[in-house]
Design brief:
177 residues; mainly alpha; transmembrane helix; single chain
Length: 177
């Protein structure tokens, strides 16, 4: 009996540390997740804004360089290739941003849909094993559908932004000449 008491005292306690419980308490708050969401979007918008500014500055540099250089490179600027390159990059940036924004909205909506379907299946008396199998099938179907929609919408936004960007940049370079 005394040996058992000594063994229990020698074992380290399995209670979590205070820093871990503080971390769990902080992460369980809704405002923490809102702050993380806003922080991630701020980082994405800042980096994409800097990338957009670098694309525009590259385009302006190409336009200025081609207007001051020889006639062999004036074909490059007059044909609109810099505007085409810049507009494709602008379209890609806006397409990715739209997909990230749509993903942030789609994840909670998809989760609610998935939960509702699994709960309805449980109410109709499906056994647990069948619920697990059906839940996996439903998860695959929902994720596949969401990704198809996400890619389709992102590509449409990218194409529209690329076309609009091309006409805006090409018209601006034509007016400058």
């Amino acid at each position: 009996m005394a040996d058992n008491m000594e063994e229990e005292q020698e074992r380290p306690s399995t209670s979590p540390s205070s820093s871990y419980t503080l971390f769990l308490r902080i992460m369980s708050k809704r405002r923490t997740w809102v702050c993380i969401f806003i922080l991630v979007y701020a980082v994405i918008l800042t980096s994409s804004w800097n990338f957009l500014k670098s694309i525009i500055s590259w385009y302006n540099l190409q336009s200025k360089a081609s207007s001051t250089s020889s006639s062999s490179s004036s074909y490059f600027s007059s044909s609109g290739w810099p505007a085409l390159y810049a507009s494709v990059l602008l379209g890609a940036v806006f397409g990715v941003l739209s997909m990230v924004a749509a993903l942030a909205v789609m994840v909670p909506a998809t989760l609610v849909t998935w939960i509702a379907i699994v709960v309805l299946l449980a109410f109709f008396g499906k056994p647990r094993k069948v619920l697990v199998v059906e839940g996996r099938k439903i998860t695959r179907e929902i994720i596949g559908c969401v990704l198809k929609i996400l890619l389709k919408e992102g590509n449409v936004v990218a194409a529209v932004c690329a076309v609009l960007g091309y006409f805006a940049l090409f018209r601006r370079s034509s007016e400058a000449d």
